[in-house]
User: Which sequence fits this backbone?
């Protein structure tokens, strides 16, 4: 099963690994510092982080040592006790427009269904009519319930109603969309804070996860955005989208490291099945194999 998962990673991040494989000679047991540096730069990893990864190591190291160092860069890996999730488990999805929020919500709902869990969506981006429509289309396609309101109405009311509906109908998972208009940041800041407060009012402890959706092709811009949102409401974890077709998979190292947050999933396409649970071990194995 592990081999299969690893293979899936390699396939999904084909572009990234393709570039890297031209750099590191296959099957070579010892790798020189120069080779490693080139490998990581090719994967779009920042120099600062390469230095951090290689700190204190000799000029030539084994694959095993390198693997260990790279996995350690994801030390913020999630330690969620999946056997003991609250019901409903409430996730708030945060990020700028275009990052892939709507699509990712659909993918998360799909995973939920595949796991045999019931799920309800909240169309909390009430700023854009298109966002409500788009999420409704996904809900219909996936055959999951959705709570929505008219454009311009109170987003926190949608959040409250979604959680209340989940409690009343005994639903396992709640996924709530939020607005992502960064150009009116003050309003957005207030809106997100209000949503968080109202979630707590609807259910003590909610939202249980505030997940930031980042466009993986955006590099440093994405990291800056995440920092801004983290200051607004505090982010618990990251989902990086659009890693298919980009050679920038190494950006995952920078994202996890600079934000000091776990990466929960990566998006590798536009379809409902194109979301992979992120595993540092599998990712690094694919990189080095
Ligand atoms: P939102 O504005 O944040 O809700 O973003 P959307 O979910 O509407 O996504 C914006 C665009 O990116 C859409 O065309 C999606 O199909 C596309 N998209 C989202 N995730 C991925 C992904 O993982 N891979 C690719 N190739 N496209 C994606």
Assistant:
């Amino acid at each position: 099963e592990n081999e299969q998962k690893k293979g899936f990673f390699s396939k999904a991040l084909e572009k990234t690994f393709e570039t890297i494989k031209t750099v590191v000679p296959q099957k070579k047991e010892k790798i020189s510092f120069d080779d490693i540096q080139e490998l990581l730069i090719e994967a779009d990893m920042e120099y600062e982080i390469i230095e951090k990864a290689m700190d204190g190591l000799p000029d030539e190291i084994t694959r095993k040592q390198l693997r260990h160092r790279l996995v350690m860069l994801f030390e913020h890996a999630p330690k969620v006790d999946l056997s003991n999730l609250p019901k409903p488990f409430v996730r708030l999805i945060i990020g700028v427009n275009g990052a892939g929020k709507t699509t990712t919500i659909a993918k998360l709902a799909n995973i939920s269904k595949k796991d045999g869990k019931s799920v309800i969506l909240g169309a909390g981006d009430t700023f854009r009519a298109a966002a409500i429509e788009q999420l409704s289309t996904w809900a219909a396609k996936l055959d999951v319930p959705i709570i929505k309101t008219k454009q311009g109405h109170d987003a926190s009311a949608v959040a409250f109603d979604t959680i209340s509906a989940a409690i009343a109908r005994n639903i396992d998972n709640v996924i709530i969309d939020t607005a992502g208009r960064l150009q009116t940041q003050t309003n957005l800041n207030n809106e997100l804070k209000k949503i968080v407060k109202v979630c707590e009012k609807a259910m003590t402890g909610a939202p249980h996860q505030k997940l930031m959706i980042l466009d993986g092709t955006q590099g440093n811009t994405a990291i800056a955005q995440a920092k801004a949102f983290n200051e607004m409401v505090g982010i618990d974890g990251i989902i990086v989208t659009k890693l298919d077709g980009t050679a920038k998979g190494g950006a995952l190292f920078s994202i996890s490291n600079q934000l000091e947050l776990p990466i929960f999933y990566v998006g590798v396409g536009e379809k409902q099945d194109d979301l992979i649970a992120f595993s540092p071990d599998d990712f690094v194995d694919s990189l080095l194999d």
In short: The pocket of guanosine-5'-diphosphate is lined by residues 95, 97-103, 180, 241-242, 244-245, 267-270, 274 (CB under 6 Å). The chain has a mean pLDDT of 87. Residues 20 and 39 are 5 Å apart (CA to CA).
